[in-house]
Amino acid sequence: MSQSIFGGKIDNDFDQKILLSLTTYFFKKEAFNLDYPLFAEVEGEESQPLTCPEYRGYKEYFDWVKNLPNVESPAWSGLPLNVEKLTSIKQAELLIIDSKLM
């Protein structure tokens, strides 16, 4: 499954392990149960958990996917809700370090 999703060869063993763990976590048979949450509930986020809809045809699923939010919650990937803030802080810290080296 992980080879099909990525679409190429991964040379780094660590990256391969991460991709395998993500595909194992997200692509399991329980994910097709109607009430199975596709990601864990996140404390502090007031939204309905994403579940697999009860559709039978391609067009219905396609429309469902098309209507998902353009910006998904970091929780969908198992990340904390403040991941963007943490990334910005880390980038600012690295910028300060780089500017001091100049």
Topology at a glance:
Elements: H1 2-6, H2 13-26, H3 58-66, H4 83-101
Task: Give an account of the 3D structure.
By secondary structure, the chain is an all-alpha fold. It is built from four helices and no strands. It has one domain (2-73). The chain has helices at 2-6, 13-26, 58-66, 83-101.
In short:
The protein is mainly alpha-helical.
Q: Cα distance, first to last residue?
A: 46 Å
Integer-rounded radius of gyration = 18 Å
The main β sheet shows up as:
none
Q: On the 0-100 scale, what is the average pLDDT? A: 80
**Helix segment tally:** 4
- Low-confidence stretches are none
Based on DSSP secondary structure assignment, what is the total number of beta strands?
0
Strand content: under 5%
| Helical content band | 40-55%
| Apparent shape | extended
Number of separate domains: 1
Structural class, please?
Answer: mainly alpha
Helix and strand sequence: HHHH
Question: Which features does this protein show?
Answer:
102 residues; mainly alpha; 4 helices; extended
